[in-house]
Amino acid sequence: MGKKSNSTASAPNINIGISDKDRASVAKELSKLLADSYTLYLMTHNFHWNVTGPMFNALHQMFMTQYTEEWTALDDIAERIRALGHYAPGTYAEYSKLTSISEPTSVPDAAAMIQMLVEGNEAVAKTARAAFDKADAANDQPTADLLTQRLDIHEKNAWMLRSMLQ
């Protein structure tokens, strides 16, 4: 089975009012967002399974709420990349090259999990903000709308998690 790159998919000419160059630029940024989002999803799900301590129930539930929302968002991000005429990255190898989030090498305690998830949500927000700049410059309103929604969610998640550390 041949590997398809993140280059333009072989499809009919795309004429949605965004140049090929701008679509490629936005898709590249969305691919980074997808990688960061998947890495954060995986970390959050891992922590849901492995959290222990006196805050177990609250954290177990909070992590489940967050990873469930993140899982749904992955599809939205990948489908937007496809709508722009590019292939979405979908392997661990691709994600590891594109993500800005460091994964844990062991199971941290609950406080460290919370701190790592604060940093992960902040990283996704920064990546989404950079992608927003590209989408805005390309006059790509659907992508900008998606990114605004992601920013709102990740900034809120970071705030809620950060509040648990005070």
Automatic annotation (TrEMBL):
<comment type="similarity">
    <text>Belongs to the Dps family.</text>
</comment>
<dbReference type="GO" id="GO:0008199">
    <property type="term" value="F:ferric iron binding"/>
</dbReference>
<dbReference type="InterPro" id="IPR009078">
    <property type="entry name" value="Ferritin-like_SF"/>
</dbReference>
<dbReference type="InterPro" id="IPR002177">
    <property type="entry name" value="DPS_DNA-bd"/>
</dbReference>
<dbReference type="InterPro" id="IPR012347">
    <property type="entry name" value="Ferritin-like"/>
</dbReference>
<dbReference type="Pfam" id="PF00210">
    <property type="entry name" value="Ferritin"/>
</dbReference>
<dbReference type="InterPro" id="IPR023188">
    <property type="entry name" value="DPS_DNA-bd_CS"/>
</dbReference>
<protein>
    <submittedName>
        <fullName>DNA starvation/stationary phase protection protein</fullName>
    </submittedName>
</protein>
<feature type="domain" description="Ferritin/DPS">
    <location>
        <begin position="28"/>
        <end position="166"/>
    </location>
</feature>
<dbReference type="GO" id="GO:0016722">
    <property type="term" value="F:oxidoreductase activity, acting on metal ions"/>
</dbReference>
<dbReference type="InterPro" id="IPR008331">
    <property type="entry name" value="Ferritin_DPS_dom"/>
</dbReference>
